[in-house]
Amino acid sequence: MTDGVYQLKNQVDRLTDLVRGLDRSVTLVGQQVTVVGEEQRETRGELSVLRSEFAEFREVHQRTAAKQLAETRVGVLQDKLAHEFGHHDVVRRSATGMLQAFDSGLVTEETVHRVSEELMVQTPRYWLAPVLVAMARWAGDDRDGCARAINEGFQRAPDKTSLFMALVLRRQRREAAAVRWLRHYLMAQDPAALGRAFAVILECISHGAFGPGGVEVMRERLESWRTQLLRDEEKLRAQVAGWRSYLDSHIALPAGHAFPRLAAVSPQWSQMEAVLARAEAHRSVLAKYTALMSAETEPLDRLEDAVDDILDLLVGDCDDEELPLRRELAYHEAVIESEGDVTRAKQAVMSDGRTMETTLDYLTIQTRSALNPAAIGVSASTQRIAIAACHEWFAEAHASFTRDYRGRLPVEVQAVFGTAHNTGAETFQLPTWTGSFTKPIEGLERSLADHWDRHGQSYVDKLAFNWRRQAMIAGGVVAAALLVLALCAGIVPALIVAVIGGGIWATVLYSQNQSAVRRQQEIRLHLERGRAQSLTQLRAAGAELVDWTTRYREADGLESRVREMIAQLATAGQAPTPFERRAVTPADARGE
After folding, report:
1. CA–CA separation, 200 vs 191, rounded Å?
2. For the whole model, what pTM was predicted?
3. Per-position DSSP letters for 440-480, written without gaps between them
C-alpha cells in the first residue's frame, strides 16, 4: 500500500509540474499575443503610410505626365497658330502702326499703299486687311478706292469694321462722323448675342473716347438693352449666380489645423469649419475692392493715345477661325500653370475661357468685365464702371451668401467620446458619451470623468478571477478522484490524494488569481491614462471653441462693412472720364 501511495504521489507531482508548465505556457502565449497585436497594429500603420505614399506618388506621376504632355501640345499649337494665322498678327501690328505713321509723317504714302496691298493679298479673308487698304486710300484722297475697301471689310465683319471706322474718325477728331458710324454699329447689334469685340465699347465709355455726343448715344443704347434684358428672369438669375460664384472663390482655406481638438471631438465641426471659411470671405472681398476703388489710374494726355489703346483691343481680338486652337492652347497653358493639376486647369479654363465664346449677352459682358477684366480684355477703369452697373447683383449675391452660411451655423456644439482604447492584448470600447458646450465646462468634465469611472470599473470587474466558479470545478474534480480512489484503493489513500490534489489546485488557482490581479492593475493604468487624455481633450476643445467663436464673430462682423462698400460701388462709374469733358472745337463740330 505504501508503494502505491508513493507512486501516486509521484504521479501527482508530475501532474503539478505539468500544470505549472501549462500555466507558464499560457502566460507566455498571452505575452506573445500582446506582441503579435502590437506588431499587427504597426503593420497596419505601415500599410496605411505606404498606401498614402503610393497615392501621393501616383498623383505626382499623373501631374508630371499631364504637364509634360501640355508642354508638348503648347509648342505644337503655337507653331500651328503661327503657321495658319501668323499673318493675322502681322495685320494687327500694322493697323496701329499705320495710324501712328500718319501722325508722325515719317512714312510715305507709297509705302503705306504698298504695305496695305501686300497684307490684303496675304490675308484674303481677314476683315482688317481691306480696312487697312481703305485707310491707305483715304490718306491718298482716293474716295472711290476707300469706299470699295470699306465695303469689302464691312461684308467680312460689319460690326468690327463699323467700330474700327468710328474709332479712327474719332482719333482724327471727326466726332460727327464717328458718332454716325457708332450709331450704325449699335443699331445693328443684338443685345442677347454680342460679339467678343463688344468689350471695346465698354472701354470707350470708360475713356470717353467718342466725346460727349458719342458717350450719350452709347449710354442711351446700353440702358435700353439693360432694361430689355432685365425682363428676362433667367438672365437676371444668371448674373446673380455669377457674382455668387465669385464670392465662393473668396472662401478661406479650412481651419482644422487651428482647432485640432475641437475638430476631433465635435460632430458639428464640418459645419463650423465651412461657416468660418465663408465668414472670412468678407475680409478678402473687402480688401480687394477697397484697393480696387482707391487705386488711381493715370489718364492719358492725348486723345490719340486713348483711342490707340482701344484700337489695340479691337484689332487684337482673335478671329472666329482661331478660336478652337486658342481654347485648346488656353487649356494646356492652364495645365502647365497648375503644375499638372487637370481639375484645377479645367476650372480655370471654364472661368476665363468662356470669354472666348462667339457671342454673349450684354449683361454677361458687363458682369465679366466687373469680375474678370483681364480675361475679357478691358482696363481697370472699365471694370469700375461695370462694377457700378452690377452693384445690385453683387448686393443680392452677397446677401444670399451671408444668409446661407449663417443658416448653417449649428445651434448647439457637442463633444462626443466613445472611441476604442488599446489595453494590451484587448481593446476597451468606451460607450458613447455626448456633452453640450452650452453647459459649463466643469460640469462636462465631471460627467465625462464619471462616465469613464463607471464603465472602466465595469470593464475591470469583468476581468477579475472567478473564485467561486473555479473552486466548484476544482471541488468536483477532487470529489470524483476521491470516489474513484476510495473504491479502488481504500479511504486512506483517497484522502491523501485528495489533500495533495486540493493543494495543487489551490496553487494553480492562486497563480491564476494573481495573474488576473496583475492584469486588472495594468488595465486600470491604461484606463486612467485614457480618462486623463479624454478630460484634457475635452478641456482643450472647450478652449478652442472660445477661440473659434471669437474668430467667427470678427469675420462675420465685416459683413456690414462689405454691404456698405457694395452700396458705395453704385457711384464708382460716375467720375468724369479723361476725354468725356473735352470741349468740342469748331473743327470737331464741322467734322473736319
Report:
1. 15
2. 0.64
3. -HHHHHHHHHHHHHHHHHHHHHHTS--HHHHHHHHHHHHHH
